[in-house]
Amino acid sequence: MTVQTAPITHQVVSPVPRDKWRSVLAGDPLALPEHSPEWVDALTDDGRYRDASRLYTFSDGREAILPFVRRRGLAGIGGWLLSYPSGWGMGGLVGAGIDVDVVRAVLGDLREQHWQRVAIRPDPQRWQAWAEALDANVLTIPRRVHIIDLGGGVDSVWHGLSNSARRHVRTAEQQGVHIETGQSGALLKDYYSLFLVSVDRWAEQQHEPRALAHARAKLRDPLSKLQFIGRHLGEGFLVTLAYIDGKPAAGSITLYGRTAHYTRSAMDRELVGRTGAGELVQWTAIKLACERGCTVYNMGESGQSAALAQFKEKFGARPVDYAELRLDRLPWTRADAALRRAVKRVLGFRDV
């Protein structure tokens, strides 16, 4: 299929052959770990989604991939293409030379398919090209992440930490906080027990019933999901845990590829206290990103939380604003948002 979109034409192949996918990925120094075919394999492992990735080959020689999954069954009637589903990280275009012309051509192609819903959470580092290509028919949901530039190496990143962050790291080391790291899903059970402790704390802060908070957490991030990801990403999936008196006290999950993405964290505040364990976990993951040659360390979504921003900026991270995109044939996004607001009002839910 050849589609004419000024100023360049393009051809589309879907799903993307794995050898081609890895070739395009290797040529993009900004590629996120979630841009890999292994990430889509993990996402489709339980059978609810299928690979709907699209390879765009342009007349000027450039190539770009838009990793998509399509919802199976009744929930996907009419075509629900997601890059990616909620709780599955960032997707969007990957490839060398992505600019506004490429994005505009891709958006034109997606509109011509007449799917019921298309959802894209693009790489924040490429947001400018997306922003310039948008029109009034694309619904945007504002997002914010924090990103650390690793280009100067580990010493430069260390000196970019705030005085308090360096002090907390040293305190944790002096107090004998024990750090363990596990690849491919190792340490996930200890991490998950810590995660459920955090869910209790978040439920109290948000005025959410504990049972509901646990149900939502296990629906969004069941242990099996994290195990799927660990199995498929292998060395690119790392759990970092801080132990105090033999008990897990703070932990994180970080994804590693051409770039690194800190994607999950949990903490037992009573155990951590003033030990600096949380800062030591984060610094350990950042050092590993430098050692693996990652170009940037994406610290994930911050929203409008001042506390999250303050924590991330202690490590030298800078805020980057971008948006999630929706192309809906019916007002699915607005209806979903209205329903969520109504439920929160009934529960007295507080977004913190």
From TrEMBL:
InterPro entries with a match to the protein in the record: Acyl_CoA_acyltransferase, BioF2-like_GNAT_dom, PG_Glycine_Bridge_Synth
Superkingdom as given in the UniProt entry: Bacteria
SUPFAM superfamilies: Acyl-CoA N-acyltransferases (Nat)
Domain called BioF2-like acetyltransferase: residue spans: 163-302
Annotated signal sequence range: none
PANTHER family: LIPID II:GLYCINE GLYCYLTRANSFERASE (PTHR36174)
Protein name: BioF2-like acetyltransferase domain-containing protein
